[in-house]
Amino acid sequence: MSRVNCIYCGERFSGELPHCPACGAPSHFRQRGWRPGAQRRFALWVALLAIACILIALWLPR
Question: Which residues cross the membrane (predicted)?
Fold first, then answer.
C-alpha cells in the first residue's frame, strides 16, 4: 500500500501501519479482513444452528 497522510497530524506514513507513528492515532486506511479461520468457524456455527433447527422442527408434535 502507498503512503498516506494522517488525518489528525498530517504526517505521511505507510498505510499498512495500524496507527500513526507520529501522534499514535489509529489509521483509517489499513485494510481490514477476516481473521484466519474466522470464516470457517462462522460457517460451522451456521451449519450447526441449521441442523439444530431442523431437528427441533422434526421433534415437535404436529
Answer: 42-60
Structural domain of residue 18, as residue ranges? Answer: 3-59
The residue whose grid cell reads 439444530 is 52
Name the grid cell of 35: 481473521
Residue 8 is placed in which grid cell? 489528525
Quote the CA–CA distance of 37 and 21 in Å, as a whole number: 30
User: Mean per-residue pLDDT for 21-46?
Assistant: 82
Read off the C-alpha cell for 17. Answer: 501501519
Task: Quote the cell numbers at residue 24.
Answer: 499514535
Highest mean pLDDT among 21-25, 37-41, 50-54: 50-54
Domain count, the chain: 1
**What pLDDT score was predicted for residue 33?**
64
